[in-house]
Amino acid sequence: MTVYEKIRAIRISKDYKQSYVAYCLNIDSANYGRMERGETKITIDRLEAIAKIFEINMLDLLCEEHTEFQPTEKEILSEMKKNLNLILDELKHIKNDLNQLK
Question: Residues 43-80, buried b or exposed e (16+ Cβ, 10 A)?
Answer without folding.
Answer: eeeeeebbbebbebebebbeeeeeeebeeeeeeeeeee
